[in-house]
Design brief:
- By secondary structure, the protein is mainly α.
- It has one domain.
- Helices cover 62% and strands 2% of the residues.
- The protein has 11 helices and 2 strands.
- A two-stranded antiparallel ribbon has the order 1-2.
- Helix 3 packs across helix 7 and helix 4 crosses helix 7.
- The chain is globular and about 55 Å long.
- The two termini are 26 Å apart.
- The N terminus and C terminus are likely disordered.
């Protein structure tokens, strides 16, 4: 996209390449993106619901704490067994969803617009794993507290996910470690390091690794197993990708479906 075309677009419609952005540019793009604005707006609405129908202090704190505690596990489960599954692209009705929520991100990890989760998948998930437990603990007020906590956790996760793809070297040792593990997931072997901000569950499930543990690079690190053979059998993602299944960093091979 040309600079002139970019300038003519609304801010949230522009394409942002994290590998070419400064930290300050990322902050502005992050805070101006409709996905983050939606999360923050819904957080404010949840606070309003809590003020209207407040839960007692203990159920409120328990609802929020439970969400923050289980959030890394929920993300690990979704990332490993849903986003990296080999069944969604085989179902025509789900191929578009899988392409949008993860295939495109692994095809171009620096593209900000497909790094953020799709609202039509993240919001129902948060209602299920954050608002519902909160409602069981503290009714309407508990649901509002749990949903708000889930939304803020998602904002935190999205921001640090951006940093891991930004052309920026963190100073904090923890951030350096997080970035290394995540970039290994993207550029060396996708079958591991499923955590983004927390790798505890990778350690417990045996999927945490460092690059020297796996000398050979995964041949499917950029296409998530959607190979030429898979594209021939299940062409829907390829058709949505302009008629081609691509491994843009795996040698540039293309398969027309």
């Amino acid at each position: 996209m040309t600079q002139g075309t970019q300038a003519g677009r609304a801010f949230w419609q522009r394409s942002h390449n994290l590998n070419r952005m400064t930290f300050g540019e990322l902050v502005r793009a992050y805070l101006g993106h409709y996905t983050i604005l939606t999360y923050l707006g819904l957080t404010a609405a949840s606070v309003g619901v809590w003020l209207w129908r407040p839960a007692a202090a203990l159920p409120t704190l328990a609802s929020a704490a439970l969400v923050m505690l289980v959030y890394p596990l929920v993300w690990y489960v979704l990332h490993r067994w849903v986003l990296h599954c080999h069944w969604m692209f085989k179902v025509p009705a789900l191929a578009r969803v899988w392409k949008r929520i993860h295939y495109d991100h692994h095809q171009d990890p620096n593209h900000l617009e497909v790094l953020f989760g799709a609202l039509y998948t993240t919001l129902p998930t948060l209602l299920l794993v954050a608002a519902l437990p909160g409602w069981l603990i503290g009714g309407v007020g508990g649901a509002a507290a749990g949903f708000a906590a889930g939304l803020l956790c998602t904002c935190f996760y999205e921001f640090f996910h951006c940093i891991q793809h930004l052309a920026y070297k963190p100073r904090a040792k923890m951030l350096v470690m997080m970035k290394r593990r995540h970039l290994e997931h993207h550029f060396h072997d996708e079958d591991g390091n499923f955590g983004i901000t927390n790798f505890l569950w990778d350690r417990l499930f045996g999927t945490l690794y460092i690059r020297t543990d796996r000398p050979a690079k995964s041949p499917t690190v950029f296409n998530l197993g959607y190979t030429e053979e898979m594209a021939a059998r299940y062409p829907w993602v390829a058709r949505l990708s302009g008629g081609e299944a691509r491994d843009i960093r795996g040698g540039g091979r293309r398969t027309r479906a």
